Each structure stands twice: as structure tokens, then as C-alpha cells.
């Protein structure tokens, strides 16, 4: 018998109703056949990795084969299990757990404040120590202060004297003229950082109004310092006093120069410093005019002339008597005195360091 005949025989055929009986369409439909089953039996599992809560402690012996019944196999459920979110651990042997467990990081002590690792009472003490020890914080602070001071003095140049006044150095200039006091103050504040420089009026009546030669200028400067110390009772021998005296010097025949002598005296330390400034050339005709203006019976004719070189040069150049050096050479008297005083201040600072080291 062929396969076609078998298929035909397996199909049920509905009975044909007799003639004259109404036909029911539903009765002619064959009953449904059994649906095929595609679900296969689950295989036997060995050492299943069933996730259980931490509270449970299941430790099967190594090498044992656990057989799970199909009735106990987990089935899918759309509901959230009651242990959702609880930490779970895989079922492993103690040896596997020790092998795979990650080492714990070394314990570090908890630091509540910076004072636990640094001496002092905290951050403020550390900052104070870093600034006072001369480290980077001190350099940053000094740089910031210098920038602020530069901005202030640029906006108001008169604030420079206020910002740099003070400190341990106090100097008196034997003159009340700002053209002499200002360059001395600037020079000493540049060298020492901070210095208080004041001027006191002083007169010299032992030499001519315009000294000629170094000896006459030195005598006039000494007289000015002595006058200041005698009139200012608050000055002691420990206070340095500085005097400036301008004089004429003939280097060769008819070659004249105006030079300023800067003299500093501090008797308590036995210090007396002398320094000559840069010379400004003076025409021989101007010196001849001074000689002609000096009377023959002038009391100090041996030490110089009755008129100053500044008055003669100012009349000749039609400038103030304090500006004739700049009109002649392009360098002002203030700049000349400032450079000379800076050199004198540097020498004075070295002497103070030597004196301090000896004591």
C-alpha cells in the first residue's frame, strides 16, 4: 500500500446525512487533532549556580552532583520576587571563594583636619609658618605687595614716601630743601627697603657761599652736621646725619666742574662716609663772573666766592637755579644726587652689617 493511501485513510470523513435531512455545516467539520508537543525534557544539571540570599548558607561538598527535580525547577513569573534588591552570593566552595575574593585595600586613618598631619593648630598655622620660613608663599606675598605698591605709586607718586617710610633706619639730612632731601630718601629706601628720612634746616658760616675745592666743601658739610646736632635736642649720636655741599673744582687750567660732596656721620659707631658725585662741566666765563661779583674784602674769599654757581648759570640759561644742570647736560641734579646717595647707602649698609657681626 502506498503512502498516499495511508494519508487518505488517516483523515476522518464525516458521515453523509440521508436525503431530505437538512445539512449542518458544523457537524461536517472534523474534530481537531492533537497539537504537537515541542517542549523537551530538561537535562540533568550539575552544580547549578542557583542564587540564594546572603542569609542562607548552602555549601555542598566539592565533587557532589546535585540532581534537581523538574518540579523544583524555577519557572518564569512576571511578579517581582520578594527578595528583589537583596544582595546575593553564588554558591561556591570555600576554596573557590578564597581564590576569587579580591584583597581589601590597606586601611588608612581618617584625617579629620590638617592639624593631624602638620604641626600647629591647623591650616592657618601652616600658612603662617610657610610665609615666615621664606618659602614660595613668602615670595608670592612679596610679589603681590610689590605689584600693589607699584600700582599705588603710579597713580599717586607722593604715596611712595609713605609706603617705604618706617623700619629701623632713621636718617636726618642737614637741609630743608626738597631737592636735596628727596633723592637721599629715595636712595636709602631703595637700598634698605624701608627708611625714614627727614630734613632739618642747617647753615654753614665757616666757608664762602660757593666753596671752591674739596677742603672747603668738607668743612662746610661738617659745619652743617654740627649745626643740626646742636639745634635738634632729640638727636643722639646713634642717629646718622647726612650733609650735601656743592663745590667747584678746577681739574686743569680753565676746566671747571661743579661737584657735590655727600657726607654721612654716625659718631656712636665711628662711621664717617664721604662720596663725590658726578661732575657737571661749568664754562670758564661763569667762574670769571663769580670772581667779578665777589668783593675784595669778602670774609671767606680764601674758601670761594660770594655768589653760587647756580645763580649765575640760571641767569645765563634763563632757567631756575635748581635746573641748570639738566639744561646744560640733560641730567638733573636730583638724578646726580640720587646716584651718589645710593652708592653711599650701599657702603653704609655693609658697615652696619660688619658692626653687627662684631657685637
TrEMBL record:
<feature type="region of interest" description="Disordered">
    <location>
        <begin position="59"/>
        <end position="115"/>
    </location>
</feature>
<feature type="domain" description="Non-canonical purine NTP phosphatase/PRRC1">
    <location>
        <begin position="175"/>
        <end position="267"/>
    </location>
</feature>
<comment type="similarity">
    <text>Belongs to the PRRC1 family.</text>
</comment>
<dbReference type="GO" id="GO:0005794">
    <property type="term" value="C:Golgi apparatus"/>
</dbReference>
<dbReference type="Pfam" id="PF01931">
    <property type="entry name" value="NTPase_I-T"/>
</dbReference>
<feature type="region of interest" description="Disordered">
    <location>
        <begin position="1"/>
        <end position="21"/>
    </location>
</feature>
<dbReference type="InterPro" id="IPR029001">
    <property type="entry name" value="ITPase-like_fam"/>
</dbReference>
<protein>
    <submittedName>
        <fullName>Protein PRRC1</fullName>
    </submittedName>
</protein>
<dbReference type="GO" id="GO:0034237">
    <property type="term" value="F:protein kinase A regulatory subunit binding"/>
</dbReference>
<dbReference type="InterPro" id="IPR026533">
    <property type="entry name" value="NTPase/PRRC1"/>
</dbReference>
<keyword id="KW-0333">Golgi apparatus</keyword>
<dbReference type="InterPro" id="IPR026534">
    <property type="entry name" value="PRRC1"/>
</dbReference>
